[in-house]
Write a structure and sequence with these properties.
The chain is α+β, with helices and mostly antiparallel strands and 306 residues long. The protein folds into two domains: 126 residues, Diaminopimelate Epimerase, Chain A, domain 1; 171 residues, Diaminopimelate Epimerase, Chain A, domain 1 (Roll). The protein contains seven helices and 20 strands. The radius of gyration is 18 Å and the shape is globular.
Length: 306
């Protein structure tokens, strides 16, 4: 079986978020879940994608952390299509369908840029109780006052549980310096994630692209982000597609971006693995559509025996 190690959401080596990718032989079936978990643990990356080609233009992808299977993984999907492009199994400037545990999604490859549909965005509720807010920010190593983001219209942004494939707590932080200062109590954060039924916490501070303009210019930073998911064995992640999809919907819900907005999220700087995550949002007949994407760089490739 072919395997790849790819830095996703990066345009140069040793940036972005590395993922393992295993392309299964056509006509085969997935190995057992236990085998795929062990393989992901052997690769030692936050996620490894296993790809099975089904028919022309369709693929089944399953995603594994070193401890569990997850429904969807943005950066591993970006990595998957970089690997499929390199292997000659997809062509540039085409759209493909993928089957995941989060549903059937479309992925477009255009001039090497991979953009994927997120699952339909869903709000699972804001965290509003003052004691709950103090607990949440305290677990992240901040006080509630440091976390508060008060907009010009005197509306305070609240943490909110949102899913575009995986549920995360979207956590506003007052400024970039405080974002950099976050130092979670990982044991407590795991317990809190379990309590709220989420993968983890996606913290953000607003970027220059949102300093008064709901339609940021291209290349302006919409938000700076950090992502923490110790419940799934990931203390911090350098780029997180599903969480930035959820953040895109959060910003739209809070009227910080408009229909048709294109966003640029910078993540991974605290890990010295800067990532560029692109997203866009559009209102369609069937609801709100969020896409997330970026580029990837192949670090290594070879064969794996499973």
């Amino acid at each position: 079986m072919r395997f790849y190690i790819i830095d996703a959401f990066a345009d140069q080596l040793f940036g972005g978020n590395p993922a393992g990718v295993v392309i299964l032989p056509e006509g085969s079936s997935f190995p057992s879940p236990e085998t795929m978990v062990k393989a992901a643990a052997e690769f030692r990356y936050s996620e490894t994608a296993f790809i099975l080609k089904k028919s022309d233009g369709k693929f089944n992808i399953r995603y594994f952390t070193p401890t569990d299977e997850v429904d969807l993984c943005g950066h591993a999907t970006i990595a998957s299509f970089c690997a499929l492009l390199e292997a000659g199994l997809v062509k540039d400037n085409n759209t493909y369908g993928i089957e995941t545990l989060a549903g059937n999604l479309n992925v477009k490859v255009e001039n090497g840029l991979v953009m994927m549909d997120m699952a339909s965005p869903e709000s699972l509720g804001a965290i509003e109780d003052k004691d709950d807010l103090k607990e949440l920010y305290g677990v992240m190593g901040l006080s509630l006052d440091e976390g508060e983001v008060i907009l010009d219209n005197e509306w305070t942004l609240l943490p909110e549980k949102i899913s575009t494939g995986l549920p995360d707590i979207i956590l506003p932080v007052a400024n970039r310096d405080l974002l950099d200062r976050i130092k979670p109590d990982f044991k407590s954060l795991s317990e809190l994630s379990e309590k709220y039924g989420v993968v983890g916490v996606h913290a953000f501070s607003l970027g220059e692209g949102l300093l008064g303009d709901s339609c940021p210019e291209p290349n302006q930073v919409t938000a700076y982000c950090r992502n923490f998911a110790p419940l799934y064995g990931i203390d911090e992640e350098a780029a997180t597609g599903t969480a930035n999809g959820a953040l895109t919907y959060y910003l739209y819900k809070n009227t910080l971006i408009d229909d048709g907005a294109e966003c640029l999220f910078i993540q991974g700087e605290a890990m010295k693995r800067p990532s560029k995550v692109l997203s866009c949002i559009a209102l369609e007949d069937e609801g709100v559509n969020v896409k997330v994407g970026g580029r990837g760089v192949i670090v290594a490739q070879g064969r794996v025996n499973l």
